[in-house]
Amino acid sequence: METGEAILADWAPVGIAGEYRLDLGRRRHGATWEDHPMPEDAPAYRMYGDLAPWWPLISPPEGYAEEAALFTRVLRSAAIPVGEVLELGSGGGHSASHLKADFVMTLVDLSEDMLEASRRLNPECRHEQGDMRTVRLGRSFDAVFVHDAIDYMVTGSDLAEAIATAFAHCRPGGIALLEPDHTAETFEEGTGRGGSDGADGRGVRYREWTRDPDPSDTWVETDYDFELRHADGSVDTVHETHRTGLFPGAVWMRLLVEAGFEPSMVTEETTEDRPPRIFLVGHRPTSP
């Protein structure tokens, strides 16, 4: 597996601080990769279904402010002025709650329950239900943004379709920004915890454990344990396992190129006590 330094060695710095674009003349190596199918149909996750009303306590909107400031800077690096932004996999709208201060946001998510939570937080934004692999809104935007919902693309064909959707909705000169939690080069197994309390007397605490049962395939698993305290003091516990995609950086870059983008990547700037993430950027050429 390549180290972070080895990944950056294949890229040339350009534009904003921390941004690199693939230098095809310098790339002389790359991970082999196959499109391993999922062993079963992907399940519907309760976190984005009946647990959606708990989402503001599971992952509070204020926790997205720092990264949203970076997203804004990256989106503004497009070759055209960026005013209208499409977010695919917008979830509860927590990123949009910050981005809407600078952009006109259209939000698309597969889960109607999460869209309903987002409508309460972002009533001024347009919301559409759809699958990021197949949705077509019949119009284009200055920029397309996909937060970590892109992680639920667990096969190469899933990921290619999501990137093609981004390109189909991106105006010439526009930009796409994709934010996976990991690439194959940066992934580390680990644990975490979180949650918060609400003014209505409800509270959430959760633990998570992410592991890679089979490094030869293209997905990893995360187990979640939730403790949900209702306003009356009663507590429910929920456990579920999520499968998310894990692809080498070279695969992300190849799929961006095949879709029609000029690819680059940005190293996250964060004050959190964790390694920075690698974000993928696609610049759509101003002309064919």
Kindly list the characteristics that best describe this protein:
S-adenosyl-L-methionine-dependent methyltransferases, disordered N terminus, 288 residues, 13 strands, alpha/beta, 2 domains, Rossmann fold, nine-stranded mixed beta sheet, four-stranded antiparallel beta sheet, 7 helices
What does this protein look like?
The protein has helices at 4-9, 55-58, 65-75, 96-99, 112-121, 156-168, 249-259; strands spanning 11-13, 19-22, 84-88, 104-109, 126-129, 141-146, 170-178, 190-194, 203-211, 219-229, 235-245, 262-267, 278-283. It has 288 residues and is α/β, with parallel strands linked by helices. It has two domains: 4-24 and 44-183 and 246-283, Rossmann fold, CATH 3.40.50; 190-243, CAC2371-like domains (S-adenosyl-L-methionine-dependent methyltransferases). A nine-stranded mixed beta sheet has the order 1-2-12-13-7-6-3-4-5, with helices on both faces. It has a four-stranded antiparallel beta sheet with strand order 8-9-10-11, with no helix packed on it. Helix 6 (156-168) packs across helix 7 (249-259). The protein starts with a helix and ends in a 5-residue tail after the last strand.
CATH superfamily of the largest domain: Vaccinia Virus protein VP39
- Major β-sheet annotation: 9 strands, mixed
- What is the percentage of strand-forming residues? 25-35%
Q: What is the CATH level 1 assignment of the largest domain?
A: Alpha Beta
Structural class: alpha/beta
Overall number of strands? 13
* Annotated CATH topology of the largest domain: Rossmann fold
Strands side by side in the biggest sheet? 1-2-12-13-7-6-3-4-5
Unreliable parts: 1-40
Quaternary organization: single chain
Order of helices and strands: HEEHHEHEHEEHEEEEEHEE
Estimate the helix proportion, in percent.
10-25%
Known CATH architecture of the largest domain: 3-Layer(aba) Sandwich
What is the overall number of helices? 7
**What is the average of the pLDDT values?**
88
C-alpha geometry: globular
How widely separated are the two ends? 36 Å
Radius of gyration: 19 Å
Number of domains: 2
